[in-house]
Amino acid sequence: MKNGTKHIGLQERLRSDILGGKYGEKLPNLRELGALYDVNFKTANKAITALVQEGLLYRQRGKGTYVSQRRIGRSDTLGLFFGMALHAIAGTVVLFENMTAVLSEFRNKPYTLSLRPLTEGLSCADRESLAVREAEPLDGGLVIGGGTQMDDVFRRIGFPHVSLFAYPAEGVTANSIDCDDRFGAFEMTEYLIGQGHRRIAALLGAPRYIGYQLRLRGYREALTSHGLSVDESLIKAGGSGWESGYAAMSELLRKKHRPTAVFCFSDFRAIGAIECAKEKGLRVPEDISVVGFDGLQAAQSATPALTTVAVPRAEVARMALEMLLSWISDSEYRPQRKLVRPRLVIRDSACALSEA
Q1: Domains of the chain, with CATH numbers?
Q2: What is the pTM of this model?
Q3: Most distant pair of Cα atoms in the chain: their distance
């Protein structure tokens, strides 16, 4: 066997020995493993690192390497895993409202909920190792903001979990609940068309976010289904916060033929867009309609109160808890993906287009 592939062979042997129960909970150190399998320190380290990334093992600094063993029903404690979004105020607020919905579902429930942040700034491998280590004492977990990466990690170690708003790719069997963003954007765009608007701008947010991609798809589909062309110059990408909505609206208002309505793919973008329009001397909604997406509490207290697409967070939290407990209690449970439909909340920031 070539030196460059020795660690692969060792990895396979170790996996077989670990799954066969040879090492119990803790592995020998790297030098001892090297002696046991007749390999050098570097080869042993590469094999162990690969198994950590796979989720079969986890490391505790200064203590050693341990086997990730699941013992269902032992703690009556569930984890709430969440991605830190401290770099963006809008993202933090959305995360907080998602977490609040989950926490409300645990009132009068015989479970302890343990908060487990998935700290940003770590390498992919370290983040996965942290997730495996944090999951070990728990019976199951709910994951917010972990994307499909955490779903992959937890599935590999057989950890019962439900991912919220992870948006797995088509064909991927993930245990998740997502909002039907495409449907929500279609409904809002169709509502604006029904109000007489034809030049409807779309302010996306970060285009890499799958939720925004789905909202853009719904926006496009609604326009084309009503025989309207999609004006690409009215589609603006950027961040999801207040300042990005302000900047995008400022750019739109410099156009010779400005839009009559602006569909912002986050409520915070919409609030920023409204402030920009008012500073430019426009009335909302009399001169220009502005709508959002998310259904945050801040949308209701905006001036004017924001028409938006509300994500049913309480429903998502309830369904997620039901799915998680089903997995924990049923050894034959099969992962499933569910979509919940958002709803339009009509307030004061949009109105019918004046013919004048």
Answers
A1: 3-67 (1.10.10.10), 77-179+314-342 (3.40.50.2300), 181-311 (3.40.50.2300)
A2: 0.77
A3: 86
